[in-house]
Design brief:
Blueprint: H1 9-22, H2 33-54, H3 58-73, H4 77-84, H5 86-94, E1 115-117, E2 120-121, E3 132-141, E4 151-156, E5 176-180, E6 186-192, E7 197-198, H6 204-212, E8 217-218, E9 221-227, E10 234-239, E11 263-264, E12 271-274, E13 277-279
Parallel strand pairs: 1-5, 2-6, 3-12, 3-13
Antiparallel strand pairs: 3-6, 4-5, 4-9, 7-8, 9-10, 11-12
This protein binds 3,4-dihydroxybenzoic acid and fe (iii) ion.
Fe (iii) ion binds next to strand 9.
C-alpha cells in the first residue's frame, strides 16, 4: 500500500491540527496577564518539581526535547491534549450542570455535517461494514419539557476504527450527520456500531505509549453534540457495555451515565438503543 491509502499518525494528526486551526478556537481568549502568569508559573513549577524529585538526567531531558519536537512534527498536539488533558477541562466546564455533563470532544469533530430531519439514516457507504444500530431518544430541558426540534450532531468511527476526513479513502461525511428532532424532541437515527479505536500508534503519542508500556485503546464510542435554543451545548460520548476498555480508556473519558443499554433491534436487523438527553438552560 502507498502512503495515500494507509492511515498514518502524521496524516490524521496533521488533519486534526488543520481542523483546529480552522475551528475559530485558536484566538478564543484575550490573555489576562495575571491569569497567564498564574497558570504558566504553576505549570513550570510542576515540571521543575518532577525534575528535582525524580533526579531527571540530561539524557532524559534531551529525550523529552526530541519527543516534544516530534509531537509538533507529527501534528499530534491536538491528539495529545485531547487524550491526556481535555477530560479535566471538560469536568471543570460542566460540573455545574443538572442535566447531562457530557464528555470530551476529541480531535475529530467537523462542524457542518449534512442535516436531515429525524427519522433519518446517517451517510454511509453502500457496503458499510458492521452491526446496524438504531439510536433513538428524546431531548428535554432540566424541567422535563421536551425540546422541540433539538439538534443532534453525531460522528463516530467505522467498523475499523477510522474517522472520515482523518483517514484516507472514506467518503467526506461518512458516519457524520446532523439530525433535527421532532416536535417532542424525539429522534431516531440509523447508523452502524463503531469499533473500539486505537489512537495512532506510529507517531509521537504512540511512541510515548509504547515506551511507557501503556495501551492505545479508547473503547468504542459515539460522539454527539446536542443543542437547542436557550440551552447549553452538550458535547458527549456514549459507550457500549462490555467493551474491554470502558475501565481503562486512554483518554479517561468514560463516565457511568454514558454507558448505553444496547438491545436487539425490533426490526430484527442489528441493535437498537434509547438514550435521552437533558440540557441545562443557559444562565440568565
Ligand atoms: C482521540 C480520538 C478520539 O476518537 C477521541 O474520541 C478522543 C481522542 C485521539 O486520537 O486523540
Ligand atoms: Fe472518538
Amino acid at each position: 500500500m502507498t502512503t495515500e491509502t494507509t492511515a498514518s499518525a502524521a496524516a490524521s494528526g496533521n488533519a486534526a491540527t488543520d481542523r483546529f486551526r480552522q475551528s475559530g478556537k485558536t484566538g478564543a481568549i484575550a490573555a489576562d496577564v495575571e491569569r497567564v502568569n498564574l497558570l504558566a508559573s504553576k505549570l513550570i513549577k510542576a515540571a521543575n518539581d518532577i525534575v528535582l524529585e525524580e533526579r531527571v538526567s540530561y539524557d532524559e531531558f534531551n529525550a523529552l526535547k526530541a519527543w516534544l519536537i516530534k509531537v509538533g512534527d507529527d501534528g499530534e498536539w491536538p491528539l495529545f491534549l485531547d487524550v491526556w488533558l481535555e477530560h479535566s477541562v471538560e469536568d471543570v466546564a460542566t460540573s455545574h450542570r443538572e442535566g447531562n455533563k457530557g464528555s470530551i470532544e476529541g480531535p475529530y469533530y467537523v462542524p457542518g455535517s449534512p442535516s436531515q430531519d429525524s427519522p433519518a439514516k446517517i451517510s454511509m457507504r453502500d457496503d458499510e461494514k458492521g452491526t446496524p444500530l438504531l439510536f433513538q431518544g428524546q431531548v428535554r430541558s432540566t424541567d422535563s419539557s421536551a425540546l422541540k426540534n433539538a439538534k443532534i450532531e453525531l460522528w463516530h468511527a467505522d467498523e475499523e476504527g477510522f474517522y472520515s476526513q482523518f483517514a484516507p479513502n472514506i467518503p467526506e461525511w461518512n458516519l457524520r450527520g446532523t439530525f433535527i428532532a421532532d416536535a417532542e424532541g424525539k429522534f431516531q437515527i440509523d447508523t452502524m456500531q463503531p469499533a473500539p479505536y486505537q489512537i495512532p500508534t506510529d507517531g509521537a503519542c504512540g511512541q510515548l505509549i509504547a515506551a511507557a508500556g501503556w495501551h492505545a485503546w479508547r473503547p468504542a464510542h459515539l460522539h454527539l453534540k446536542v443543542s437547542a435554543p436557550g440551552h447549553e451545548l452538550l458535547t458527549a460520548q456514549l459507550y457500549f457495555p462490555g467493551d474491554a476498555h470502558n475501565d481503562d480508556d486512554i483518554a479517561t473519558a468514560v463516565k457511568p451515565e454514558l454507558l448505553l443499554d444496547i438491545q436487539p433491534a425490533e426490526s430484527g436487523n442489528g441493535k437498537q438503543v434509547t438514550y435521552d438527553f437533558v440540557l441545562d438552560p443557559e444562565a440568565k
